Amino acid sequence: MTARLIFPATLNLTAPAATHHKAFSGTEEHMKIALLALLGLALGALGGAALGIGAGLAWVEIFKTTSFEGYNGMLVFFTFMPLGAAIGGIGGALLFGVIAIKDAEIAIEREPVRRREG
Q: What CA–CA distance (Å, rounded) separates 71 from 4?
């Protein structure tokens, strides 16, 4: 009896392969989408803050904002940088989330190819 339990012919090795994707793909796909959305949020916030600083410096130069007591620096770093970070974070999270959702719809795991007998 013990030899029969160890013998590989008694194991049904195709059952886990057929049911694994249905049983575990839902939670894994949601976690992948959430992780990529958070990554997009972080990268978008960093990129948006950098673009906000650039836009603020351009604003100061184009409109000749006064530099009395550092007003132009405060304008750039307390107005343009946070706005750029917020807009970039939201945009990055949405972009990465949409990409992750589209990727989840595409079948990544292919079914094993059946061999032709004969």
A: 83
